[in-house]
Amino acid sequence: MQTETLKKVNTSVEQEIEISGSEAVMKALVAEGVETIFGYPGGAIMPIYDALYDYRDQLEHVLVRHEQGGIHAAQGYARSSGKVGTVFATSGPGATNLVTGLADALIDSTPLVCITGQVFAHLLGTDAFQETDVINITTPVTKWNYQVTDANEIPAILAKAYYIAGSGRPGPVLIDITKNAQIQKFNYKGYEKCTHIRSYRPKPIVRNEYIQAAAAMINKAERPLVIFGQGVILGKAEKEFKNFIEQGGLPAAWTILGLSALETDHPLNVGMLGMHGNYGPNVLTNECDVLIAVGMRFDDRVTGRLDRYAKQAKVIHLDIDPAEIDKNIKADVPVWGDCKETLPLITALLDKKEYTSWRARFSECMDKEIEAVIENELNPTAEIMTMGEVIHQMNQITGGDAIIVTDVGQHQMVACRYAKFTESKSNITSGGLGTMGFALPAAMGAKYGAPDRTVVAIIGDGGIQMTIQELGTIMQNNIDIKILILNNHFLGMVRQWQQLFHERRYSFVDIDSPDYVTVAKGYRIEGNSVAKRENLVSALTTMLHHKGPYLLEVHVGKENNVFPMVPQGCGVSEVRLK
Amino acid sequence: MKQEYTLMVYAENQVGLLNRIAIIFSRRKINIESLNTSPSEVEGIHRFNIVIHETEVMVKKVVRQIEKQVDVLKVYFNTNDNIIWQELALYKVPTEIIAEKVKVERLLREYGARVVAIRKDFTIFETTGHREETDKLIEVLAPYGLIEFVRSARVAIIKDSKGFHEKLKEFEQTEPVPLAPEDPISEEEANSSIV
Fold first, then answer.
1. Residue B19 to residue A136, Cβ atoms within 8 A
2. CATH class for domain A379-564?
3. CATH topology of domain A15-188
């Protein structure tokens, strides 16, 4: 009897205590299972950082060197772990520095919660020091955002934030908390996770008639082609997807964000779609009779010219976001829903098939591509190294077990074309937004999200110089990532376009680099630089076996181009091999 | 073919939501012809009436983008055939000239106008109706020195709508109720994201 009374007293004490808004933020993060925060302090978020000081044993905070680095790191964390990434930044410039990362996370469906400090509520709209209208600046680049001016709102709003960020089609959420709300003491009644918002349906209802229509259409197909994107990874539906294509015997091509959802060497994997994707999937998109799109959004880099895209095919589109259906490509059968639910329903209705002669077409195309492009890229005869052979040699050492984080440009396309994957969530790149400077900080975050895995950041000489300051973060926290710079002494992708479409008028693409090994040394990071083929394998081996962070610069051909290529304004079947 | 569409957005009454909705149009360079926000038939649920001139394909895309917003419950879109709508207009004219030269009684009757205020120096008329109707009175009053004119946004009711009370109950259920598999998909569901 006595113990029971005691317990009750204890719970009520636990339930109703007076705490500050900042402490409520900490309690929320702990309750949401947050392990790592990427952030940078400043005036308007100081109360939150003060509260964090008492929670250091429960919440790991990584001090980055720039807020953009912080948010890209949180993106890398989210993509390698499948969890929601968390970012702290102060008001004004701290918050505006998040904008690129928010846009990147929104277009690539990455779950984030960004908490920004804001000036005192009574100063809003007065042009106070470091005040900026963060909510309105970030509205177009967030899935949801909210400004808190009263501490009482904090538990429920953060619960909503984590729920919205991680559910349905994931995306970034920004919560702006005024300084008075951070300081304010209030009666804390405990933390309750959010599981329902009446105005928000994370996933549409699965309609059986669409499932049946999709299965019937696939069963009747003679030349089906599956194209899949990150939806498979975000939906944690890798197994369901594999069962689906294996049951139907369906050849499947990935988008750049779909990479690693299926192992590279799977017999039904026919390669990458899009502008620099493989020859077969591009050409045969315009020959298939049923096109089955799974968790992808028909980006223009995948489709090329829309009025020449798969005109002959019936289209089945599986997506969790109804706004994607019919946005770019009209779907004959729209399968709304979470592909983890819809794929098994369709699979159950599929006939077991092989499509031997149709699949042989992909092999023929691949032979053609190997002869025209790949052989020379992976086993070049020229003296200077190619990007492709660097990736190829790296594959030999890692066996495809590494998480590959790429930046944006030629090296990105080459890495995505030639890197081997054996495990899901192993390809982290800025796909939709194409953010140069993404890879270095994203790789840091990826390591925190998957500490047992090897993380290799592959970066060009342009991109590395955009966020090179994060070497400081890597140094301070001894983040064990491998930085592989493919240096072609040019902004290579722009140069390639200038060569092909602007009569070699190389307008401002000639970029100088510092001595990266010396820079790394300045940050107490070991490094090496190679320019000769005979040193490549040993340099890669040293890097990959090194304990702790390591930087390797590889000098590659200055004017190498990435092929195949679907030139802008052309249809996918007009893909060029040279 | 582009034509006039009226979008009815049922949403939470949330600061900033107007901006979130407005930028969906501006991002696609679509001009909002008319915009009204008001309470709805359901307490606590807000209603936006938005008029745009667009193709049906574009309207559907925009509707899905609006429905995607976390604080939006549901969007309906209709052409003018399916709605009853009204706009309110106010006209300020000099009392002296109007009293002297215009048969006010006849004017009020003919245009369904009413007098809202009469002062020594000015008189204010009000009409409610479609745009052509409110425009006509401008033409009539212009020769007598129309001092000020203002017209409200469109408010509209969908002819065959049963209101939002029942729909809201579906939204308030924690788990969406799957429809029976043999249920045919209605036009509304086919056009909507949330069924």
1. yes
2. alpha beta
3. Rossmann fold (3.40.50)
